[in-house]
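Appendix B: complex inputs.
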Amino acid sequence: MGKKDRSTQQLVQGMGFPSIHLVSLEKMEAMATQERIRFILDEVEAGKILILERGLTPQEEAKLIEQTMREVDQDSFIGIEMQSYGMDNGSNFLQRVVMGGPRPRMAVIGPADLLRLVSKDNEQIVTKIISKDGK
Amino acid sequence: MGLKQVMMNLSLGRWLGKAFGKKHAKIGIYGPPNAGKTTLANRIARDFTGETVGAASAVAHETRRVRKKADIDVRSGTAKLHIDIIDTPGIATQIDFHEFVEGHGMDEEEARRRAKEATEGVIEAIRWLEDVDGVVLVMDAAEDPFTQVNVTILGNLEARRLPIVIVANKIDLPEASPATIKSAFPQHPVVPLSAGEGTNMDALYEVMTKHFR
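Resulting structure:
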């Protein structure tokens, strides 16, 4: 993280708001599974909300939940809010071949005490950012 | 017997089970906290062995360790299925001790201990996903089924091509909507029931004996 990023983050957090980071597919694909999980947890534990252009596979999500539970600290980090769709299986055979198999769709992940799910269905995820007192 | 030989025997046993029809399956009872997993596990165990698996309560994360009840013969008509039931702690992405204090009147020390044990239970439940032969995924029919836990569990099981039966539990509640669960996950069998009242358990046993063979 650069000096400018840090100061921007401090400014945003100093105003009482978490910062929201849109993470590109290329950035996620450049990392191995363990790196992705470490990256996500480091960012979320620092109070950031991540919107992933392409989320995690179900196996990676399970690993992320497992690692989150290892790092839960009741005084500083109660876990994550993670919302994703199921895998994109492609709508026809040709699409599946071009895709090279099922792949994750967009996901949003943030600190559980700052991000809360409002509603979710197959096409839309609605979350809201909450204050520390839960409002 | 060396480790390599043990691994070869395990692989051979698994292959034979798949090739000739598994006679003895480990069935995991999975789901989010408070969906009624232990109540269901107890109901199944009691129906066929007269014994229970563990204590259930209205407090979330009551089950914080995996519990196993071995050698249950589930029967439906002439069909029979020999299983071990693996009752798992509820999987969650967040655990806050304040919920035990504010929601259930626990003192802080007890609530913190329960939260710590609950995190360990989630880890254990996820680890067991790799060791089950099929899963009964329990959902509260009065709640929104599109939870991340449900999506993640189903995604993992589908990736491993494990058989899944979804239970739409708590149909005794007036706000229960098993149809919502059916429309959310049309690719899997959904059995509406009330584990607490024992309603429609025969339908579950019929689906289990067909689906987990």
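The two ends of chain B are 31 Å apart (CA to CA).
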